[in-house]
Design a protein that fits this description.
The chain is α/β, with parallel strands linked by helices. The chain is 42% helix and 15% strand. It folds into 2 domains: 39 residues, no CATH class; 134 residues, 3-Layer(aba) Sandwich (Rossmann fold), CATH 3.40.50. The strands form 2 sheets. Strands 4-3-5-6-7 form a 5-stranded parallel sheet, sandwiched between helices.
Amino acid sequence: MISAYDWSDIEEDARKAGVNGFISKPLFRSTLYHKLNELLGITTQEQRPEDDDTDIAGMNILVAEDNDVNWEIISMLLQMHGITSERAENGQLTVERMQRAAQGEFDLIFMDIQMPVMNGLEAAKAIRALEDPWASGIPIIAMTADAFSENVAECLAAGMNGHIAKPVDMKLVLKEIRRIKEKQS
């Protein structure tokens, strides 16, 4: 039974009528998930403290993204995990920002592929050609809607270190961030 009201007054009558459980409004996906698991007898593993994000909190990522909505989404999701980010609206600005970056200022770059002025593939190649060994060696992860194997191969051939398909799955993003961080350690 779903109700915006306190069900304690009707709980006994509702159970006699066959109601197995109660959920309060507003309805949240997590509340529904836990209630269904409870009613089906499925035990769910709660997030353990060791599953926190302290290992990646404090990282700083340069995000090459021309779309305002995509930028807002990825920056907010990163922020929720303690990661700061800076935006470059196209590939040319990304290259220029890396030319000015202090060593270690960014931990990696998320690179959109389809951008105006200079696309992500051209930008990755230009970054790999920079004279500064730190800047030219920074990990670059493609973030693009193009997810066919030939697109992934094209990104890797341009010097990128990985590929994440849009719309982004934050679990995959965090897995990729951790993979990069482990290689840097």
